[in-house]
Amino acid sequence: MFRPKIPTMPTPTGVVSRPAVVEPTAIVPGTPTPPPAPMAPAPSRPVVQLTPGTVLALVGGGTAVVLVVGAVLVSLLLAVAITGASVAVVAVVVRSILASDTRR
Prior knowledge:
By secondary structure, this protein is mostly helical. It contains 1 helix and no strands. Helix content is 50%, strand content 0%. The longest helix is centred in the C-terminal third of the chain and has 52 residues.
């Protein structure tokens, strides 16, 4: 029961054909191609030409990004401040309720 059973290799059935014979072929060297002519090196960085319209668009886009990020950060800070104030008020109310129960 605890001994593994090793499967036996099945015997082939039907007609078995012989393997095909691969004949080696001769490699004929081709004529050498001349090396390509050296080209002038391309500039490493493309030149960007800024027109007044693109400068205005970049300034406007940057201003919009700064305003949006600032509004998000201010709203997060405001949410944290409101949450802290409400937790403080709840703590004072709970403390008052517990103190009034001990006096009675």
